[in-house]
Write a structure and sequence with these properties.
Blueprint lengths: L9 H9 L2 H11 L3 H14 L20 E5 L5 H9 L4 E6 L2 H11 L4 E4 L12 E7 L8 H11 E12 L5 H24 L2 H13 L3 H10 L2 E9 L4 E8 L3
Parallel strand pairs: 1-2, 1-4, 2-3, 4-5
Antiparallel strand pairs: 5-7, 6-7
Length: 251
């Protein structure tokens, strides 16, 4: 009997991610048909648009566009943070993950100059109003209590600054869902994940959690309910991925 991994507890999720860092990047690209790189670039593009709240002044010619601080939650192997740092420099960049094995992969990719921290993103060990940007890629399906998590994200953001998340979702088109995407989730991902990683439960979690996760419109309501403003979302690739963002209200 297959385990129900749609909503596992924190200990189970940690054990799943601790087991797969060596194959994580390869399988992400393989399962997404290479679209994960495009999705990450869209995440960065979305996050950096109007990062500071209006009214703001555009940088002058020759002016450094860097500065500020960002936090990448559930950093994994560091691919999303690396994409951010290719685009803009930050005075203070932090990546956190509760999987020490993932953090080791992040360190290999990012090198020095980045603070990497082992922590549970449900209870962030940072002072309030620390960051200009909080982001995360493919982490929301691992959240245990969404309102508490989003309240913590809001707490560590400076007033007027942004939280932006990339997540896997489901196509709205019923034909695409029934004929292609649902069989892909139910059979292809678990089978290939087991073949390449020898840890089939990790990819059963991927499959089952995508199918049971809330819709982007519901995430928008969650963000608004804990006090975010200017909340919006955009879907990509027939609805298989979404970016959702919100801004902590100005005081």
């Amino acid at each position: 009997m297959k385990p129900n991994l749609a909503h596992p507890d924190r200990k189970t999720i940690k054990s799943l991610f601790d087991a797969i860092p060596s194959r994580y990047d390869f399988l992400n690209s393989f399962f997404s048909l290479g679209l994960d790189g495009y999705w990450r670039r869209k995440l960065v593009e979305t996050a950096l648009i109007n990062l500071t709240p209006p009214p703001f002044l555009p940088p002058q010619v020759g002016e450094d566009k860097g500065g500020g601080s960002m936090l990448d939650l559930g950093i994994g192997t560091g691919k999303s943070l690396a994409q951010f740092l290719k685009t803009q420099s930050f005075e203070y960049s932090v990546g956190c993950d509760f999987s020490e094995n993932m953090l080791l992969k992040s360190k290999e990719r990012l090198g020095g100059g980045i603070d990497l921290l082992a922590c549970d993103f449900h209870d962030l060990p940072f002072r309030s109003e620390t960051f200009d940007l909080v982001t995360g890629s493919f982490i929301l399906r691992s959240v245990q209590t969404m309102d508490h998590f989003l309240s913590e994200v809001k707490r560590v953001l400076k007033p007027g600054r942004k939280a932006v998340f990339l997540e896997l979702t489901r196509p709205k088109n019923r034909l695409i869902w029934n004929l292609a995407y649902r069989p892909y989730l139910n059979f292809y991902i678990p089978a290939v994940g087991k073949l390449f990683s020898k840890h089939d439960h990790a990819y059963q979690f991927l499959s089952q959690s995508i199918q049971s996760f809330v819709e982007p419109a519901d995430l928008k309501k969650n963000l608004e309910s804990v006090g975010f403003s200017d909340v919006s979302y955009e879907t990509f690739s027939f609805g298989s991925a979404a970016i959702i963002q919100g801004r902590r209200k100005q005081i």
